[in-house]
Write a structure and sequence with these properties.
About 25% of the residues lie in helices and about 25% in strands. It is an alpha/beta fold. About 45% of the residues are buried.
Amino acid sequence: MNIIIIGGVAAGTKVAAKLKRDNYSHNVKILTKGKDISYAGCGLPYYVGNVIEKQEDLIQNTPKRFSDLTGVEVLTEIEVTKVNPEAKTVEALNLATNESAVYSYDKLIIATGADPIKPPIEGIDLDGVYFMRTPEDAIKLREAVDEGKIKRAVVVGGGFIGLEVAENLRAQGVNTSVIDMAGQILPGFEPEIASYVDNHLADHRIITFTETGLEAILGDGKVEKVKTSNRTMKADAVVLSIGIRPNTALLDGSGIELAPNRAIKVNEKLETNIKDIYAVGDCAFVTNIITGKGAYAPMGSTANIEGRILAQNINGGNFTYGGALGTAVVKLPGVNAGKTGLTEDGAKAEGYDVETVTTIMEDKAKYYPGASVFIIKMIADKATKKLLGVQVAGEGNIDKIVDMAVMAIGLDAKLEDIQNLDYAYAPPFSTAIHPFAATVNVLLNKIKGNMVSLTPREYKEGKADGYKIIDSSIVPKINGAPYVDISKAHEELPEFDKDEKLLLVCDKGKRSYMLQQRLRDFGYTNTLVLEAGTMFNELK
């Protein structure tokens, strides 16, 4: 079988290698316009910060090494310009010789990925403007830093790559600011989690400016200033990380159906609307596991999964790709953050009867050296108790919380299904009741009415107005608030009326919940627990 793959990197090389591994008789050919076919795109910011020291470590496979290993024919610097489904051919231009060629196929796999968005603004082509999509981008930026050319940088875009670049520039001694036209950094995260991370970045001298659009890059031949919608900032470099656009212009006129963002629509078998043409990776538009609706999931992890499934199907298998959850994790100075599934607002928009809880849990036994906490927000459907999403931030290994949620959501689990499983425990790794399971317990308590609480979002929205704050911490911490020590509260509290509105606040929320239970037994009818306590909320 004659199989052509347009594009390499994650998806293209994965499907090619699996095709040949399982059926070496295939004639598999990769056509790619770049000189590299497989590189560590997600590792580029860490090369800038000298965490990854060597350039060659960014290149996962050279074309020759990949070809020798797999038997796949690799043609670099070949740009496919047109796809002809009826003739089963693709037209291409050799970028080195400027010669045209036509390649025929039995099966065509489109793995063209996506390119960084380059806004049409003044100064976009000045020396000192960088992107972060290929090894060359990272190499050029690090060279400029190493040569002392960059003292002040502005990163445009507060997503994962933008923030990772900011972290690594700051670690190299570059004064770094981040601007983003959205109302928060970390798109797709809950606003309260994004705000928590934002505060940590400020503590590490990375200042973010949200609701701030890029209007122009100013300078005489090189970057000198950045003009934004709010102010003008001095800078020696600008790193643009404002998103990506599926690389699908070559499909114009082919009849292949595209999504509104110009990603290629595929079904659960990664087939396009045209027979024998498939799409995988950052150029493909897949589905969301929970909603069944179209989703764009440009991640190296999903690209590899899609590539493997597609190769097996072409080789006679009958596998389906269930879709993505928008899972992601990011390492930042002083804090890591991760997410999967639906946000609170996203779940409500899908018609779910949403209940959420925000907890603060120890990430390991609190007496063990290096112990810290996880801030976990969990989203579920109140009626069915189906887990819908999780977001987490903390210094430790937040990825394990995210991955546990991925497994639960992927298997359509209800909260009771994951409440009492035999999770791993030892003091260096976890708490006796795993922080994930403990959060499930708290959410179930809330759904069942055993805990009546305010979320951090509700508190910020003013839903505690009219309530008297009661400090229920281990020791008094809230200035001006009456203090109740639960270890001494063994009878009614005469200083409070039983129908008085009382907001119970402690460090993390646990002691407040215990006090609420106690007061309920004493006949107090109007108490609320502030979820995540003073460690997460800024008291008014």
